[in-house]
Protein: Procollagen C-endopeptidase enhancer
Amino acid sequence: MDPSLFLYVLTVAWTLTYGQRPSRNNTSLIAQCGGEITGDSGYIASPDFPSQYPPNKRCTWLITVPEGQVVMLSFQIFDIEMDTLCRYDYLDVYNGHSNRSQRLGRFCGTFRPGAILSTSNKMALEMVSDEGMAGKGFVALYNGGIPHVNDQQFCGGKMEKPQGSLKTPNWPEKNYPAGISCSWYIIAPANQVIELSFDKFDVESDNYCRYDYVAIFNGGETDDSKRLGKFCGDIPPEPIISNGSELLVQFVSDLSVTSDGFMAMYNTKPKSRTKLVAIPKKPSKPVKPTLRPKPIPTKKPAQAGNLKPGVKPGPKPKPGQASRLRQPIRTGPQGGRRLGNATIPMRRKVIAHTTNSTGGKVLA
Structure:
């Protein structure tokens, strides 16, 4: 498709969806590998769009809107090679012009991310592709806006006060809007930690929190290895305490069903006075029963196969147990089931992040 024709179709679709045309500054579709982009608004597309993006590329777009505004990024089309952990092809979005800035998210697959908001007038996008599979890439619209003027559009931000509150847009008058992404970056002094408590909580329910959710991370970026929990439903999570002096709270809603939202409070306190609330990632090991001493065999036992020298074989299974033995299944950080070199998503429900199982759903 000719890029100019595609831009026209995209503009019509945007108008029908949002009731207004994009800014008059949106005069072209930038389908190239990176660059510096300035202005009130504009379109960005992956290289060679609408054809597949090329292999072995690292493209960086630096977006700058006028001073006093923030950047709002909305994806119109998204098709990047899918991987459970986004290890091969992916798009990173940063809250600033450096990849050392706070990362607002890493995305791959075909599900369009929600709207992403910066806390300043700068945002960076970095797309990486390997030598393997590819998709059509992405098309995104960026807009500059005045923060906190329209609560339905803007949310999140950096919070450095000793205490404060977090709430979804429109709370408590009506449901939060569809298709938004909010990130609250809470910072405490170096010798303190952050305690987060939810007063009210009502986020679209799903067994795996796939659509609308609240995700909480130690530190300042959406790193799955530092994720403390992922919540949805209508039961408030138990209070959460950070391990260090930084906590990131991310709220995402998709483009369909919405709910009331949430209201949360945070406060900082000295680390020595707090008792960390840990979210168990694995169940505790059961206590092994005491075994009676076995009599010393009078005959030499048969040689066990497939054992390394010096390794004693384990106890022989009781009759009827052999049929229940199976090979262990390896899983990745997000529960992906490994089969050869492929990862098969394995969905599982983990309830509550503390020993009290009254909390909201969490996908650890």
User: Anything to note?
Assistant: Residues 155-272 form a domain with the Jelly Rolls fold (CATH 2.60.120.290). The first strand starts at residue 29 and ends at 31. The chain has a mean pLDDT of 74. Helices lie at 3-18.
